[in-house]
Specification:
Elements lengths: L3 E3 L2 E3 L3 E4 L6 H11 L3 E5 L14 H4 L6 E5 L6 H14 L5 E4 L12 H13 L3 E6 L3 H10 L3 E4 L13 H10 L5 E3 L5 H10 L3 E4 L1 H4 L4 H21 L22
Parallel strand pairs: 3-4, 3-10, 4-5, 6-7, 7-8, 9-10
Antiparallel strand pairs: 1-2
Helix pairs in contact: 1-9, 3-4, 4-5, 5-6, 7-9
């Protein structure tokens, strides 16, 4: 089985999904089940996982016994806020240490603030967190995050929630060539072909939320994304044919043709 390994644990699905933006927890659960995802991200600042006992909890709809929770720091704009948020997540989830770090630069673009991200990553790794980190598609920053000890590096394809797809495949290819930890495309995926392209490039996985939750039919899109990730991975492993500029090549051999 072609497994995805993160922090020493094997996963059969290479599609990671978010839990936000759905109409209710029931739709969240159905979309996740349809996607086949095993890792789900949770925005600690926006989702109830026990902070408010009087409100419905995501833990009931998406049980941690069935899925690997990936608490994230969505909405954090400083290293200090991100660190505090993940410390809270560890308490709420009984010592859970696999987390997604994201420190944003501004509320309009939601582009990562790499300076604050690097600072937070250093502290969190030293505190024993297994950090999966959202970042820009800068190969130098990506390598630095791996050197700090992050267990996965997650460069954006394009801006969060934009649905613009992969805008700079060349930078992703440089990152893939230089890193040994899993590289997971995070942010910007809009449709199934975007996910397939990321996997065909050699990315280890794809993380998405809005692409599924924001679709007209979230469950059907979840199914499409599952298939796209699988197809893209198989195409990468198969090794595509060489591109031939200005040169046609017949699908069938021309030698030995009857009548030639």
């Amino acid at each position: 089985m072609d497994s995805l390994f993160i922090a020493g644990k094997a996963y059969s699905s290479r599609l990671l999904v978010g839990t936000g933006k759905y109409k209710d927890f029931d739709q969240t659960r159905l979309a996740i089940e349809t996607s086949g995802a095993e890792i789900v991200t949770v925005a600690i600042r926006r989702t109830n996982i026990g902070q408010d006992p009087s409100q419905p909890s995501l833990l009931d709809a998406v049980p941690p016994s069935k899925y690997t929770y990936l608490p994230n720091t969505a909405g954090c704009y400083t290293a200090e806020d991100a660190i505090r948020t993940l410390r809270l997540a560890r308490e709420l989830l009984d010592g859970h240490d696999l987390v997604k770090l994201e420190v944003l630069g501004d509320p309009q673009s939601l582009y990562p603030n790499v300076v604050e991200t690097l600072q937070a990553a250093e502290v969190l790794v030293k505190e024993g967190f297994k950090v999966m980190v959202y970042t820009s598609d800068d190969p130098i920053v990506a390598r630095r995050l791996e050197d700090i000890g992050c267990v996965a590096v997650m460069p954006l394809a394009s801006l969060i929630g934009s649905g613009m797809g992969i805008l700079n495949p060349w930078n992703l290819e440089i990152i893939l060539a230089r890193l040994t930890v899993p590289v997971i495309v995070d942010a910007g995926v809009g449709t199934a072909s975007d996910a397939a392209i990321a996997m065909e490039l050699g990315c280890d996985a794809v993380l998405m939320n809005t692409a599924i939750a924001g679709a007209k039919n979230p469950l059907l899109m979840a199914s499409a994304m599952k298939k796209a990730v699988q197809a893209g991975r198989e195409a990468f492993l198969a090794g595509r044919m060489a591109k031939k500029v200005y040169q046609a090549s017949p699908s069938s051999p021309t030698s030995g043709i009857i009548g030639s």
